[in-house]
């Protein structure tokens, strides 16, 4: 029997449940059905079963985009969390009035819209780097975004620059919650700053790692607008992320059903990776 308290709870929860149903669950069910057809965006067409899924696993462009996205995600997640933790450690020092200033500066790139951010970095790579290369004669600065290698690192640099400040704030909140008494006791026992960080701060930051790894992984896998603005998947689709491959399949090739099957596969991959990551980091939290 529902009490007044439980009735109030479900009443307040109802708008969120309705919203999730309308924008998430129903589209997911409809999309799952369309992935089993040869839908072209206008007519549903014939039911083809799992043929689209079989074709997806045989599609070299799709597989290459998955591998590129996976490589990009691993490198980006590691760099973002290392840099964010370093920045968080820096801004939690006693910097006086400069603390808020540095936190704001480091966080600001996250406020820039993805596609605008892509165009900003495209200008940096194509104009600023070229100018530096012409003035210095250093070949390293020339031809950025024109090869798969530089295109990859260009995307990584953009994404790391955008996300590091956001992850920094999460680490800052957890660092500030570490009891001062523990740190003072470690200092009195003669622990060096590095020992204090490795033996005390790092284990107590495991809940933060659970959050930041999930956020950076999920954002790295679904990146699209930065990819579009910076490299457009070039040269020769060598820097095409999976989201762009799916989009092009749906709206350029008009193979909506086939693209939907790719999207379902991609969704399942992200879900599996996220669940594994959360379960591993949760266990680390318990052991820490």
UniProtKB/TrEMBL annotation:
According to its UniProt record, where is this protein mainly located? membrane
Q: Which residues are in the ABC transmembrane type-1 domain?
A: 66-277
Membrane spanning residue stretches: 12-34, 72-92, 104-124, 152-174, 202-221, 263-280
Which UniProt keywords are given for this protein, alphabetically ordered? Answer: Cell membrane, Membrane, Transmembrane, Transmembrane helix, Transport
Indicate where this protein resides in the cell. Cell membrane
Q: Name one GO biological process term.
A: transmembrane transport
A Pfam match is BPD_transp_1
A GO-annotated cellular component: plasma membrane
- Membrane topology, record value: Multi-pass membrane protein
| Membership in a protein family | Belongs to the binding-protein-dependent transport system permease family.
| Protein's name according to its UniProt entry | ABC transmembrane type-1 domain-containing protein
